[in-house]
Design a protein that fits this description.
heterodimer, A: mainly alpha, globular, B: alpha/beta, Rossmann fold, four-stranded antiparallel sheet, 10 helices, about 35% helix
Chain lengths: ~270, ~280
Protein backbone atom coordinates (compact mmCIF):
# COMPACT_ATOMS: atom_id res chain seq x y z
CA UNK A 1 0.00 0.00 0.00
CA UNK A 2 2.69 2.45 1.01
CA UNK A 3 4.77 1.39 -2.00
CA UNK A 4 1.79 2.08 -4.25
CA UNK A 5 1.16 5.44 -2.62
CA UNK A 6 4.82 6.33 -3.00
CA UNK A 7 4.79 5.31 -6.66
CA UNK A 8 1.64 7.25 -7.52
CA UNK A 9 2.79 10.19 -5.40
CA UNK A 10 6.19 10.20 -7.08
CA UNK A 11 4.65 10.11 -10.53
CA UNK A 12 2.26 12.91 -9.60
CA UNK A 13 5.02 15.07 -8.19
CA UNK A 14 7.19 14.51 -11.25
CA UNK A 15 4.28 15.43 -13.52
CA UNK A 16 3.56 18.54 -11.47
CA UNK A 17 7.21 19.56 -11.62
CA UNK A 18 7.21 19.15 -15.39
CA UNK A 19 4.00 21.17 -15.68
CA UNK A 20 5.51 23.82 -13.46
CA UNK A 21 8.52 23.95 -15.77
CA UNK A 22 6.27 24.29 -18.81
CA UNK A 23 4.34 27.05 -17.06
CA UNK A 24 7.56 28.90 -16.28
CA UNK A 25 8.69 28.63 -19.91
CA UNK A 26 5.32 30.01 -21.02
CA UNK A 27 5.65 32.92 -18.60
CA UNK A 28 9.11 33.63 -19.97
CA UNK A 29 7.84 33.53 -23.56
CA UNK A 30 4.87 35.78 -22.88
CA UNK A 31 7.04 38.16 -20.88
CA UNK A 32 9.65 38.38 -23.64
CA UNK A 33 7.02 39.01 -26.31
CA UNK A 34 5.34 41.65 -24.15
CA UNK A 35 8.54 43.57 -23.56
CA UNK A 36 9.59 43.09 -27.18
CA UNK A 37 6.36 43.95 -28.97
CA UNK A 38 3.83 45.62 -26.68
CA UNK A 39 5.90 47.61 -24.20
CA UNK A 40 7.83 49.78 -26.70
CA UNK A 41 4.49 51.13 -27.99
CA UNK A 42 3.55 52.12 -24.46
CA UNK A 43 6.63 54.26 -24.17
CA UNK A 44 8.57 51.81 -22.06
CA UNK A 45 11.51 51.67 -24.42
CA UNK A 46 13.70 49.06 -25.95
CA UNK A 47 17.41 48.78 -25.20
CA UNK A 48 18.65 49.07 -28.75
CA UNK A 49 22.24 49.83 -27.80
CA UNK A 50 22.51 46.72 -25.64
CA UNK A 51 20.94 44.69 -28.44
CA UNK A 52 23.53 45.96 -30.90
CA UNK A 53 26.33 45.09 -28.50
CA UNK A 54 24.93 41.57 -28.15
CA UNK A 55 24.54 41.34 -31.92
CA UNK A 56 28.22 42.11 -32.39
CA UNK A 57 29.12 39.52 -29.77
CA UNK A 58 26.82 36.76 -31.04
CA UNK A 59 27.20 37.48 -34.75
CA UNK A 60 30.38 39.26 -35.70
CA UNK A 61 32.64 37.57 -33.16
CA UNK A 62 31.40 34.10 -34.03
CA UNK A 63 32.11 34.51 -37.74
CA UNK A 64 35.72 33.23 -37.75
CA UNK A 65 34.95 29.98 -35.96
CA UNK A 66 31.71 29.36 -37.86
CA UNK A 67 33.53 30.09 -41.11
CA UNK A 68 36.40 27.75 -40.35
CA UNK A 69 34.20 24.87 -39.23
CA UNK A 70 31.82 25.25 -42.15
CA UNK A 71 34.67 25.36 -44.66
CA UNK A 72 36.00 22.10 -43.27
CA UNK A 73 32.57 20.48 -43.21
CA UNK A 74 32.05 21.47 -46.84
CA UNK A 75 35.34 19.78 -47.73
CA UNK A 76 34.47 16.69 -45.69
CA UNK A 77 31.08 16.43 -47.38
CA UNK A 78 32.71 16.62 -50.80
CA UNK A 79 35.07 13.79 -49.90
CA UNK A 80 32.32 11.60 -48.46
CA UNK A 81 30.10 12.25 -51.47
CA UNK A 82 32.90 11.43 -53.87
CA UNK A 83 33.44 8.10 -52.07
CA UNK A 84 30.12 6.85 -53.46
CA UNK A 85 29.65 9.04 -56.54
CA UNK A 86 33.06 8.17 -58.01
CA UNK A 87 31.95 4.53 -58.41
CA UNK A 88 29.34 5.72 -60.90
CA UNK A 89 31.66 8.28 -62.47
CA UNK A 90 29.34 10.99 -61.23
CA UNK A 91 31.74 13.21 -59.32
CA UNK A 92 30.33 16.35 -60.93
CA UNK A 93 27.17 15.77 -58.85
CA UNK A 94 29.16 16.46 -55.67
CA UNK A 95 28.23 20.07 -56.35
CA UNK A 96 24.51 19.33 -56.16
CA UNK A 97 24.83 17.26 -53.03
CA UNK A 98 27.06 19.67 -51.13
CA UNK A 99 25.02 22.67 -52.20
CA UNK A 100 21.63 21.30 -51.23
CA UNK A 101 22.84 19.69 -47.98
CA UNK A 102 24.65 22.86 -46.91
CA UNK A 103 21.80 25.24 -47.61
CA UNK A 104 18.90 23.11 -46.44
CA UNK A 105 20.47 21.42 -43.46
CA UNK A 106 24.07 21.59 -42.42
CA UNK A 107 24.86 25.29 -42.48
CA UNK A 108 21.89 26.27 -40.28
CA UNK A 109 22.48 23.31 -37.98
CA UNK A 110 26.23 23.82 -37.54
CA UNK A 111 25.76 27.54 -36.96
CA UNK A 112 23.11 26.85 -34.34
CA UNK A 113 25.25 24.27 -32.56
CA UNK A 114 28.34 26.48 -32.55
CA UNK A 115 26.31 29.42 -31.27
CA UNK A 116 24.76 27.26 -28.59
CA UNK A 117 28.21 26.45 -27.30
CA UNK A 118 29.49 29.97 -27.74
CA UNK A 119 26.58 32.24 -26.89
CA UNK A 120 23.75 30.15 -25.45
CA UNK A 121 26.04 28.96 -22.68
CA UNK A 122 27.31 32.52 -22.18
CA UNK A 123 23.74 33.76 -21.73
CA UNK A 124 23.00 31.07 -19.15
CA UNK A 125 26.26 31.73 -17.29
CA UNK A 126 25.80 35.50 -17.31
CA UNK A 127 22.24 35.44 -16.02
CA UNK A 128 23.07 32.67 -13.55
CA UNK A 129 26.02 34.61 -12.14
CA UNK A 130 23.91 37.73 -11.89
CA UNK A 131 21.29 35.78 -10.01
CA UNK A 132 23.84 34.37 -7.57
CA UNK A 133 25.34 37.83 -6.99
CA UNK A 134 21.85 39.28 -6.24
CA UNK A 135 22.13 41.47 -9.35
CA UNK A 136 18.76 40.23 -10.62
CA UNK A 137 17.23 41.10 -7.24
CA UNK A 138 18.88 44.51 -7.49
CA UNK A 139 17.20 45.11 -10.86
CA UNK A 140 13.88 44.06 -9.38
CA UNK A 141 14.20 46.36 -6.38
CA UNK A 142 15.16 49.26 -8.67
CA UNK A 143 11.91 48.71 -10.51
CA UNK A 144 13.72 47.58 -13.67
CA UNK A 145 12.17 44.52 -15.25
CA UNK A 146 14.87 41.84 -15.73
CA UNK A 147 13.16 40.53 -18.85
CA UNK A 148 13.23 43.93 -20.45
CA UNK A 149 16.73 44.68 -19.29
CA UNK A 150 18.45 41.36 -19.93
CA UNK A 151 16.34 39.05 -22.06
CA UNK A 152 14.89 41.23 -24.80
CA UNK A 153 18.19 42.69 -26.07
CA UNK A 154 19.70 39.20 -26.20
CA UNK A 155 16.62 37.83 -27.91
CA UNK A 156 16.64 40.52 -30.59
CA UNK A 157 20.38 40.14 -31.12
CA UNK A 158 20.19 36.37 -31.38
CA UNK A 159 17.27 36.37 -33.82
CA UNK A 160 19.10 38.87 -36.00
CA UNK A 161 22.58 37.38 -35.70
CA UNK A 162 21.97 33.70 -36.37
CA UNK A 163 20.33 34.10 -39.80
CA UNK A 164 23.13 36.44 -40.84
CA UNK A 165 25.82 34.03 -39.72
CA UNK A 166 23.89 31.18 -41.35
CA UNK A 167 24.04 32.89 -44.75
CA UNK A 168 27.78 33.18 -44.34
CA UNK A 169 27.96 29.55 -43.24
CA UNK A 170 26.04 28.40 -46.33
CA UNK A 171 28.36 30.27 -48.63
CA UNK A 172 31.54 29.07 -46.95
CA UNK A 173 30.36 25.46 -46.73
CA UNK A 174 29.75 25.45 -50.49
CA UNK A 175 33.14 27.09 -50.94
CA UNK A 176 34.76 24.30 -48.90
CA UNK A 177 33.17 21.67 -51.13
CA UNK A 178 34.19 23.64 -54.19
CA UNK A 179 37.82 23.99 -53.18
CA UNK A 180 38.22 20.31 -52.33
CA UNK A 181 36.37 19.07 -55.43
CA UNK A 182 38.18 21.26 -57.92
CA UNK A 183 41.66 21.06 -56.41
CA UNK A 184 41.77 17.48 -55.10
CA UNK A 185 39.05 15.55 -56.93
CA UNK A 186 39.72 17.45 -60.18
CA UNK A 187 36.11 18.39 -60.91
CA UNK A 188 35.83 21.10 -63.56
CA UNK A 189 35.47 24.58 -62.04
CA UNK A 190 32.80 25.80 -64.45
CA UNK A 191 30.81 22.60 -64.16
CA UNK A 192 30.85 22.75 -60.34
CA UNK A 193 29.54 26.30 -60.29
CA UNK A 194 26.93 25.50 -62.92
CA UNK A 195 25.73 22.40 -61.07
CA UNK A 196 25.55 24.23 -57.74
CA UNK A 197 23.53 27.05 -59.27
CA UNK A 198 21.29 24.57 -61.03
CA UNK A 199 20.64 22.47 -57.94
CA UNK A 200 19.75 25.26 -55.54
CA UNK A 201 16.30 26.76 -55.53
CA UNK A 202 14.85 29.60 -53.54
CA UNK A 203 12.85 27.02 -51.60
CA UNK A 204 16.07 25.48 -50.26
CA UNK A 205 17.26 28.85 -49.06
CA UNK A 206 13.89 29.55 -47.43
CA UNK A 207 14.04 26.21 -45.59
CA UNK A 208 17.46 26.97 -44.21
CA UNK A 209 16.61 30.52 -43.16
CA UNK A 210 13.34 29.55 -41.50
CA UNK A 211 15.12 26.93 -39.46
CA UNK A 212 17.86 29.35 -38.45
CA UNK A 213 15.35 31.84 -37.04
CA UNK A 214 13.73 29.16 -34.91
CA UNK A 215 17.14 27.84 -33.81
CA UNK A 216 17.95 31.35 -32.62
CA UNK A 217 14.75 31.51 -30.58
CA UNK A 218 15.49 28.12 -29.01
CA UNK A 219 19.08 29.02 -28.13
CA UNK A 220 18.12 32.31 -26.52
CA UNK A 221 15.17 31.06 -24.51
CA UNK A 222 16.90 27.92 -23.29
CA UNK A 223 19.95 29.95 -22.21
CA UNK A 224 17.81 32.50 -20.41
CA UNK A 225 15.58 29.90 -18.79
CA UNK A 226 18.52 27.88 -17.49
CA UNK A 227 20.20 31.05 -16.29
CA UNK A 228 17.20 32.05 -14.21
CA UNK A 229 17.01 28.51 -12.83
CA UNK A 230 20.42 28.82 -11.15
CA UNK A 231 20.33 28.30 -7.39
CA UNK A 232 23.19 28.32 -4.96
CA UNK A 233 26.65 29.38 -5.99
CA UNK A 234 29.27 28.74 -8.63
CA UNK A 235 28.34 25.07 -8.81
CA UNK A 236 24.79 25.96 -9.79
CA UNK A 237 26.06 28.24 -12.54
CA UNK A 238 28.23 25.45 -13.95
CA UNK A 239 25.44 22.91 -13.80
CA UNK A 240 22.89 25.11 -15.52
CA UNK A 241 25.37 26.27 -18.16
CA UNK A 242 26.06 22.65 -19.11
CA UNK A 243 22.39 21.90 -19.00
CA UNK A 244 21.61 24.85 -21.26
CA UNK A 245 23.88 23.46 -23.97
CA UNK A 246 22.43 19.94 -23.77
CA UNK A 247 18.80 21.14 -23.69
CA UNK A 248 19.41 23.61 -26.44
CA UNK A 249 20.99 21.06 -28.80
CA UNK A 250 18.15 18.64 -28.09
CA UNK A 251 15.50 21.22 -28.98
CA UNK A 252 17.46 22.37 -32.01
CA UNK A 253 17.32 18.81 -33.37
CA UNK A 254 13.59 18.59 -32.61
CA UNK A 255 12.93 21.90 -34.38
CA UNK A 256 15.12 20.74 -37.25
CA UNK A 257 13.11 17.54 -37.57
CA UNK A 258 9.79 19.36 -37.49
CA UNK A 259 10.76 21.89 -40.13
CA UNK A 260 12.50 19.34 -42.35
CA UNK A 261 9.35 17.24 -42.30
CA UNK A 262 7.19 20.28 -42.91
CA UNK A 263 9.18 21.41 -45.92
CA UNK A 264 9.55 17.85 -47.23
CA UNK A 265 5.88 16.89 -47.08
CA UNK A 266 3.98 20.14 -47.19
CA UNK A 267 5.87 22.60 -49.37
CA UNK B 1 -6.67 55.34 2.12
CA UNK B 2 -4.86 58.56 3.03
CA UNK B 3 -2.35 60.09 0.68
CA UNK B 4 1.31 59.36 1.18
CA UNK B 5 2.32 62.50 3.01
CA UNK B 6 -0.50 62.31 5.55
CA UNK B 7 0.68 58.99 6.84
CA UNK B 8 2.89 59.03 9.88
CA UNK B 9 4.39 55.66 9.08
CA UNK B 10 6.59 54.87 6.12
CA UNK B 11 6.21 51.14 6.60
CA UNK B 12 3.57 49.17 8.46
CA UNK B 13 3.78 45.41 8.82
CA UNK B 14 0.82 43.44 10.13
CA UNK B 15 0.92 39.79 11.16
CA UNK B 16 3.41 38.79 8.52
CA UNK B 17 3.74 35.05 8.03
CA UNK B 18 6.33 33.65 5.64
CA UNK B 19 6.83 30.00 4.84
CA UNK B 20 9.31 28.01 2.80
CA UNK B 21 7.43 24.82 2.05
CA UNK B 22 6.04 23.73 5.40
CA UNK B 23 8.70 25.53 7.40
CA UNK B 24 7.49 28.78 8.94
CA UNK B 25 10.27 31.37 8.81
CA UNK B 26 8.36 34.41 10.01
CA UNK B 27 5.42 33.88 12.30
CA UNK B 28 3.12 36.82 12.93
CA UNK B 29 5.57 39.72 12.77
CA UNK B 30 4.07 43.21 13.22
CA UNK B 31 5.76 46.58 13.55
CA UNK B 32 5.61 50.13 12.23
CA UNK B 33 8.44 52.32 11.06
CA UNK B 34 8.03 56.10 11.30
CA UNK B 35 9.16 58.51 8.63
CA UNK B 36 12.75 59.54 9.00
CA UNK B 37 13.74 57.01 11.60
CA UNK B 38 16.48 54.43 11.45
CA UNK B 39 14.98 51.09 12.31
CA UNK B 40 17.32 48.20 12.93
CA UNK B 41 16.27 44.59 12.56
CA UNK B 42 18.54 42.59 14.78
CA UNK B 43 18.90 38.88 15.25
CA UNK B 44 21.15 35.89 14.93
CA UNK B 45 21.80 34.07 11.68
CA UNK B 46 18.83 32.06 10.47
CA UNK B 47 16.20 33.81 12.55
CA UNK B 48 14.42 35.40 9.60
CA UNK B 49 15.91 38.89 9.25
CA UNK B 50 16.92 38.57 5.61
CA UNK B 51 13.57 36.96 4.78
CA UNK B 52 11.81 39.87 6.43
CA UNK B 53 13.83 42.34 4.38
CA UNK B 54 13.13 40.46 1.14
CA UNK B 55 9.43 40.68 1.91
CA UNK B 56 9.61 44.39 2.70
CA UNK B 57 11.12 45.19 -0.70
CA UNK B 58 8.79 42.78 -2.48
CA UNK B 59 11.31 40.17 -3.61
CA UNK B 60 9.13 37.58 -1.90
CA UNK B 61 5.41 37.44 -1.35
CA UNK B 62 4.34 36.53 2.17
CA UNK B 63 2.09 33.60 3.02
CA UNK B 64 -0.18 35.84 5.06
CA UNK B 65 -0.23 39.32 6.53
CA UNK B 66 0.07 42.78 5.10
CA UNK B 67 2.84 45.24 4.35
CA UNK B 68 1.98 48.88 3.73
CA UNK B 69 4.51 51.25 2.23
CA UNK B 70 3.50 54.92 2.43
CA UNK B 71 0.03 53.75 3.36
CA UNK B 72 -0.35 51.65 0.19
CA UNK B 73 -0.89 47.93 0.52
CA UNK B 74 2.29 46.57 -1.02
CA UNK B 75 1.37 42.90 -0.67
CA UNK B 76 -1.89 43.16 -2.62
CA UNK B 77 -0.46 45.26 -5.44
CA UNK B 78 -0.11 44.26 -9.07
CA UNK B 79 3.41 43.91 -10.46
CA UNK B 80 3.08 47.27 -12.21
CA UNK B 81 2.09 48.94 -8.94
CA UNK B 82 5.01 47.37 -7.14
CA UNK B 83 7.37 48.66 -9.81
CA UNK B 84 6.10 52.19 -9.14
CA UNK B 85 6.58 51.84 -5.38
CA UNK B 86 10.06 50.49 -5.94
CA UNK B 87 11.14 53.67 -7.66
CA UNK B 88 10.80 55.34 -4.25
CA UNK B 89 12.82 52.79 -2.34
CA UNK B 90 16.49 51.97 -2.50
CA UNK B 91 18.30 48.89 -1.32
CA UNK B 92 21.91 48.17 -0.45
CA UNK B 93 22.65 44.51 -0.88
CA UNK B 94 24.96 42.51 1.32
CA UNK B 95 27.34 41.77 -1.55
CA UNK B 96 26.63 45.23 -3.05
CA UNK B 97 25.13 43.54 -6.20
CA UNK B 98 26.74 46.05 -8.55
CA UNK B 99 26.56 45.11 -12.23
CA UNK B 100 29.99 43.76 -12.88
CA UNK B 101 30.05 44.53 -16.57
CA UNK B 102 29.37 48.24 -16.03
CA UNK B 103 31.46 51.08 -14.68
CA UNK B 104 30.44 52.71 -11.40
CA UNK B 105 28.96 55.67 -13.26
CA UNK B 106 26.84 53.37 -15.42
CA UNK B 107 25.72 51.45 -12.36
CA UNK B 108 24.53 54.60 -10.63
CA UNK B 109 23.03 56.00 -13.83
CA UNK B 110 21.06 52.84 -14.61
CA UNK B 111 17.90 53.65 -12.62
CA UNK B 112 17.95 57.20 -13.98
CA UNK B 113 18.28 55.99 -17.56
CA UNK B 114 15.51 53.45 -17.08
CA UNK B 115 13.00 55.57 -15.21
CA UNK B 116 13.56 59.16 -16.29
CA UNK B 117 13.83 61.00 -19.56
CA UNK B 118 16.69 63.17 -18.34
CA UNK B 119 19.37 64.25 -20.78
CA UNK B 120 22.60 62.29 -20.71
CA UNK B 121 24.48 65.39 -19.52
CA UNK B 122 22.10 65.77 -16.56
CA UNK B 123 22.42 62.11 -15.69
CA UNK B 124 26.18 62.51 -15.83
CA UNK B 125 26.09 65.34 -13.28
CA UNK B 126 23.66 63.49 -11.00
CA UNK B 127 25.85 60.40 -11.11
CA UNK B 128 28.88 62.45 -10.06
CA UNK B 129 26.91 64.04 -7.21
CA UNK B 130 25.79 60.64 -5.90
CA UNK B 131 29.27 59.18 -6.09
CA UNK B 132 30.69 62.30 -4.41
CA UNK B 133 28.08 61.88 -1.67
CA UNK B 134 29.44 58.46 -0.69
CA UNK B 135 33.06 59.55 -1.02
CA UNK B 136 33.76 57.95 -4.40
CA UNK B 137 34.23 61.10 -6.48
CA UNK B 138 36.72 60.40 -9.27
CA UNK B 139 35.95 56.69 -9.44
CA UNK B 140 33.31 57.03 -12.17
CA UNK B 141 35.13 54.89 -14.72
CA UNK B 142 36.20 52.08 -12.39
CA UNK B 143 34.66 48.65 -12.70
CA UNK B 144 33.25 47.07 -9.52
CA UNK B 145 35.93 44.38 -9.60
CA UNK B 146 38.62 47.06 -9.30
CA UNK B 147 37.32 48.30 -5.95
CA UNK B 148 37.67 47.13 -2.36
CA UNK B 149 34.71 45.66 -0.46
CA UNK B 150 34.04 48.87 1.44
CA UNK B 151 34.12 50.94 -1.75
CA UNK B 152 31.71 48.54 -3.41
CA UNK B 153 29.31 48.96 -0.50
CA UNK B 154 29.55 52.72 -0.91
CA UNK B 155 28.93 52.44 -4.63
CA UNK B 156 25.91 50.25 -3.92
CA UNK B 157 24.62 52.99 -1.64
CA UNK B 158 25.19 55.60 -4.35
CA UNK B 159 23.16 53.48 -6.75
CA UNK B 160 20.40 53.00 -4.18
CA UNK B 161 20.31 56.80 -3.74
CA UNK B 162 20.18 57.51 -7.47
CA UNK B 163 16.42 58.03 -7.64
CA UNK B 164 16.33 60.06 -4.38
CA UNK B 165 14.34 57.40 -2.52
CA UNK B 166 12.20 58.02 0.55
CA UNK B 167 13.05 54.70 2.14
CA UNK B 168 16.33 52.86 2.03
CA UNK B 169 17.04 49.29 3.06
CA UNK B 170 20.45 48.00 4.07
CA UNK B 171 21.16 44.28 4.17
CA UNK B 172 24.08 43.62 6.53
CA UNK B 173 25.91 46.85 5.62
CA UNK B 174 29.01 46.09 7.64
CA UNK B 175 29.29 42.36 6.95
CA UNK B 176 32.75 41.33 5.82
CA UNK B 177 34.35 44.71 6.42
CA UNK B 178 37.10 45.64 8.86
CA UNK B 179 36.00 47.75 11.86
CA UNK B 180 37.33 51.02 10.45
CA UNK B 181 35.66 50.64 7.08
CA UNK B 182 32.49 49.37 8.77
CA UNK B 183 32.45 52.48 10.99
CA UNK B 184 32.77 54.57 7.85
CA UNK B 185 29.68 52.87 6.40
CA UNK B 186 27.83 53.48 9.66
CA UNK B 187 28.67 57.17 9.50
CA UNK B 188 27.43 57.22 5.92
CA UNK B 189 24.12 55.65 6.94
CA UNK B 190 23.73 58.33 9.63
CA UNK B 191 24.68 61.06 7.18
CA UNK B 192 22.11 59.91 4.62
CA UNK B 193 19.45 59.74 7.27
CA UNK B 194 20.12 63.20 8.67
CA UNK B 195 20.79 64.96 5.35
CA UNK B 196 17.83 63.62 3.41
CA UNK B 197 15.49 62.68 6.26
CA UNK B 198 15.46 59.16 4.87
CA UNK B 199 13.62 56.33 6.48
CA UNK B 200 16.26 53.65 6.91
CA UNK B 201 15.77 49.99 7.62
CA UNK B 202 18.95 48.17 8.54
CA UNK B 203 19.32 44.44 8.94
CA UNK B 204 22.41 43.58 10.90
CA UNK B 205 23.90 41.52 13.68
CA UNK B 206 26.73 43.93 14.47
CA UNK B 207 26.07 45.40 17.91
CA UNK B 208 28.72 48.06 17.34
CA UNK B 209 26.83 49.41 14.32
CA UNK B 210 23.49 49.25 16.08
CA UNK B 211 24.78 51.50 18.86
CA UNK B 212 25.84 54.11 16.30
CA UNK B 213 22.89 54.20 13.98
CA UNK B 214 19.70 52.87 15.56
CA UNK B 215 16.71 54.97 16.58
CA UNK B 216 14.69 51.87 17.30
CA UNK B 217 15.57 48.22 17.28
CA UNK B 218 13.51 45.11 16.72
CA UNK B 219 14.99 41.80 17.65
CA UNK B 220 13.95 38.63 15.88
CA UNK B 221 14.20 35.16 17.28
CA UNK B 222 12.81 32.05 15.57
CA UNK B 223 10.68 34.16 13.26
CA UNK B 224 9.03 36.20 16.00
CA UNK B 225 9.72 39.57 17.48
CA UNK B 226 11.47 38.99 20.75
CA UNK B 227 11.81 42.62 21.76
CA UNK B 228 11.32 46.05 20.24
CA UNK B 229 12.17 49.54 21.39
CA UNK B 230 15.03 52.00 21.63
CA UNK B 231 18.48 50.66 22.25
CA UNK B 232 18.34 51.78 25.91
CA UNK B 233 15.07 49.98 26.41
CA UNK B 234 16.52 46.80 24.96
CA UNK B 235 19.71 47.12 26.98
CA UNK B 236 17.59 47.34 30.15
CA UNK B 237 15.57 44.27 29.16
CA UNK B 238 15.82 41.23 31.38
CA UNK B 239 14.89 38.79 28.61
CA UNK B 240 17.67 36.17 28.69
CA UNK B 241 18.11 36.10 24.92
CA UNK B 242 18.30 39.85 24.60
CA UNK B 243 20.88 39.84 27.38
CA UNK B 244 22.76 37.03 25.71
CA UNK B 245 22.87 38.92 22.41
CA UNK B 246 23.98 42.17 24.05
CA UNK B 247 26.62 40.45 26.15
CA UNK B 248 27.78 38.36 23.19
CA UNK B 249 27.63 35.02 24.97
CA UNK B 250 27.49 31.77 23.01
CA UNK B 251 24.52 29.43 23.18
CA UNK B 252 24.76 26.81 25.83
CA UNK B 253 23.63 23.40 24.60
CA UNK B 254 21.17 22.96 27.43
CA UNK B 255 19.59 26.31 26.86
CA UNK B 256 19.35 25.78 23.14
CA UNK B 257 17.48 22.53 23.51
CA UNK B 258 15.20 24.03 26.09
CA UNK B 259 14.37 26.80 23.74
CA UNK B 260 13.84 24.38 20.88
CA UNK B 261 11.26 22.48 22.89
CA UNK B 262 9.58 25.69 23.89
CA UNK B 263 9.32 26.67 20.26
CA UNK B 264 7.84 23.28 19.41
CA UNK B 265 5.23 23.43 22.13
CA UNK B 266 4.29 27.00 21.35
CA UNK B 267 5.92 28.80 24.26
CA UNK B 268 4.65 26.79 27.23
CA UNK B 269 7.02 26.77 30.18
CA UNK B 270 9.40 23.88 30.46
CA UNK B 271 12.31 23.85 32.81
CA UNK B 272 14.18 20.72 31.88
CA UNK B 273 14.25 18.91 28.56
CA UNK B 274 11.90 15.95 28.92
CA UNK B 275 11.95 12.78 26.85
CA UNK B 276 12.01 13.26 23.09
CA UNK B 277 8.74 14.83 21.97
CA UNK B 278 7.11 13.40 18.85
CA UNK B 279 6.93 15.97 16.09
CA UNK B 280 3.34 16.51 15.11
CA UNK B 281 2.16 15.40 11.73
CA UNK B 282 5.51 14.59 10.15
Amino acid sequence: MTALTALVGGAGRAALNQLYGVARVCVLIVDTLYWLVAAPFRGKGLRIRAAVECFVEFGYHSMPIVGLICFLIGAIMAMQASYQLARFGATQYIANLVGVAAVRELAPLMTAIILTGRSGSAIAAEIGTMKVAEEIDALDVMGVNPTKFLVVPKFLAMVAAIPCVTVLAMFIMILGGFVLSTMVLSVDVGLYIENTAGALQLKDFATGMTKSVFFAIVICWVGVYRGFQVEGGAEGVGKMTTSSVVTSIFFIIIVDLVFSALFYFAV
Amino acid sequence: MGMEQENEYAIEVEDLVVRYGDQTVLDGVSFQIRRGETFVILGGSGHGKSTLLRNLVGLMRPFAGRIRINGQDFTAMSDAGRMEVRKKIGMCFQGSALFNSMSLADNVALPLREHTKLKESTIDIMTRIKLELVGLGGYEDYLPAELSGGMRKRAGLARAMAMDPEIIFYDEPSAGLDPIVAAGIDMLIRKMQSTFNLTSVVVTHEMASVKLIADRVCMLRHGRILAMGTLDELAASDNPFVRQFFERRPDEDQEDRDDYLRALTGGSERTAPGPQEPEDGR
